[in-house]
């Protein structure tokens, strides 16, 4: 059994119990050689599995997630279960409440196995910036699973659970999905509540699913999406219409942006995306080349705005209210300085300094405000393109998963890898990655589909059709 739908069907048919599924997942997770989890909540998971089995016996199962073991990225708050955001700053922190997405999964009956590894505060593209451990790609353990939701991706790809929630500020759901042969969805900004999600860059952050199939991702989205009174930026838009999932792509207009075939792109990746476009044509869609001229400024824009917002959001970690506190400071200033110096890792410090600089008097106009203006132009590119096409197709990452350690000493090289995923966040669009090919070395290639704001339905149905036509399967190597 691999997919969430299969687990749900087996539970519904009485072929297995949630307790049995959960025990099997926990056993695999405890022997996991890929380092997917930071924390396993064995007692909590077993208790919710038993509660689910009891509901089912009484005919009160609440839906497709009831009794299904899932994982959560460790920047999503879980009441009483340690949540670190991959940072020493929050080591041992037990949140006093659940994030809205956590509460919604619990209400849907899901079994939450534990918390998955990530780049500290979501800052990175390989999960190597975690303060605690490195996560390996289950499809090739010498390589990165991507990031920052690399632990979530590895937990699903290695079949330690049936789905996971990650967060995506600039690609952190889609790129790990691409690197591990999964489907990953970043919803439209505002689609999913951010209440109780450790903030990185609030105008870009969204929670979304990682799963084996498009259908599984849609099921998870449906459980977590929708207005939340606790998050004033959550949208009143109607929920995603999942009845259109199987409606096909006949007549669909697909745009292939020429700017997304970037210099330095792996030729196998480019060829695979073009082949996916041809597949969509064979299914009845039309494909045309489109232009998103401001794409070349997305990198610079994102890496000004995200650090600015991060520097503001991370100001709350002052060693006073919660999180790491230095011992024996000699002054209040030393309390702040030493707590932060000890609690934050090097990439987080770099981002805080970049953001603080770009927001400081005299520079805010040149950097922060300019980046906001360019962001508006990027958004306008998409508004114009979406008058002509219904979805935009590209690669998710310009390259295949790189080797662990390969880019660690060169932050800029790592930032450049995000070039294809960042515009989606800057424009607030829904974006999905799904496997579209297998490279000659066996690694997966991810295709990205972008849609109009709050048109997850069209993105999902396109992905569903492509997935069915391509029929790709990836399996973890060795280990569990
Ligand atoms: N790699 C990007 C960054 O480091 C995006 C990370 C994310 O989406 N959380 O900011």
Q: Can you give a write-up of this model?
A:
This protein has helices at about 5-10, 20-30, 40-55, 100-105, 150-155, 175-180, 215-225, 265-280, 300-315, 330-345, 345-360, 365-390, 410-415, 420-425, 455-470, and strands spanning about 35-40, 70-75, 110-115, 165-170, 185, 205-210, 255, 285-290, 390-395, 430-440, 445-450. The chain is of the alpha/beta class. It has a domain at about 5-250: Amidase signature (AS) enzymes (Alpha-Beta Complex). It has an eleven-stranded mixed sheet with strand order 1-3-2-4-6-5-10-11-9-7-8, sandwiched between helices. A hairpin with a 5-residue loop joins strand 10 (about 430-440) and strand 11. Bound molecules: glutamine (GLN). Glutamine binds near residues 124, 125 and 306. Glutamine binds near residues 122, 172, 306 and 418.
């Amino acid at each position: 059994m691999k997919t969430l739908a299969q687990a749900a069907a087996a539970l519904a048919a009485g072929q297995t119990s949630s307790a049995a599924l959960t025990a099997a997942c926990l056993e695999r997770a405890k022997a996991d050689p890929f380092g997917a989890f930071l924390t396993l909540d064995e007692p909590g998971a077993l208790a919710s599995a038993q509660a689910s089995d009891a509901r089912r016996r009484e005919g009160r199962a609440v839906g497709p997630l009831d009794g299904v073991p899932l994982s959560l990225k460790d920047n999503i708050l879980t009441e009483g279960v340690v949540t670190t955001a991959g940072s020493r700053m929050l080591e041992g922190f037990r949140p006093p409440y659940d994030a809205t997405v956590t509460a919604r999964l619990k209400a849907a009956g899901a079994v939450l196995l534990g918390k998955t590894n990530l780049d500290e505060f979501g800052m990175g593209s390989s999960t190597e910036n975690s303060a605690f451990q490195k996560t390996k790609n289950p499809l090739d353990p010498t390589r990165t699973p991507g990031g920052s939701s690399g632990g979530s991706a590895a937990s699903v790809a290695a079949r330690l659970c049936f789905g996971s929630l990650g967060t995506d500020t600039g690609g952190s759901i889609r790129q790990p999905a691409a690197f591990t042969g999964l489907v990953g969805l970043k919803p439209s900004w505002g689609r999913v509540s951010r209440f109780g999600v450790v903030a990185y860059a609030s105008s870009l952050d969204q929670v979304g699913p990682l799963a084996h199939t498009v259908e599984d991702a849609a099921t998870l989205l449906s459980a977590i999406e929708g207005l939340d009174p606790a998050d004033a930026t959550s949208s009143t838009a109607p929920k995603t219409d999942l009845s259109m999932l199987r409606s096909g792509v006949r007549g669909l207009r697909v745009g292939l942006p020429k700017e997304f075939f970037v210099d330095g792109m792996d030729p196998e990746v480019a060829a695979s995306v073009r082949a996916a476009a041809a597949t969509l044509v064979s299914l009845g869609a039309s494909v045309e080349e489109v232009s998103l001229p401001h794409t070349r400024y997305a990198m610079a824009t994102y890496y000004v705005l995200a650090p600015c917002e991060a520097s503001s959001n991370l100001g709350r970690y002052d060693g006073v209210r919660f999180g790491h506190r230095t011992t024996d400071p000699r002054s209040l200033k030393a309390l702040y300085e030493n707590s932060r110096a000890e609690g934050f890792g090097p990439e987080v410090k770099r981002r805080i300094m970049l953001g603080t600089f770009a927001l400081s008097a005299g520079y805010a106009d040149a950097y922060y405000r300019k980046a906001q203006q360019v962001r508006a132009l990027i958004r306008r590119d998409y508004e114009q393109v979406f008058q002509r096409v219904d979805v935009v197709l590209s690669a998710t990452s310009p390259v295949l998963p790189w080797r662990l350690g390969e880019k660690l000493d060169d932050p800029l090289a790592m930032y450049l890898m995000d070039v294809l995923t960042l515009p989606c966040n800057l424009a607030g669009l829904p974006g999905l990655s799904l496997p579209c090919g297998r490279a000659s070395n066996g690694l997966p290639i991810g295709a990205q589909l972008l849609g109009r704001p709050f048109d997850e339905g069209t993105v999902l149905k396109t992905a569903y059709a492509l997935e069915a036509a391509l029929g790709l399967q990836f399996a973890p190597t060795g280990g569990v």
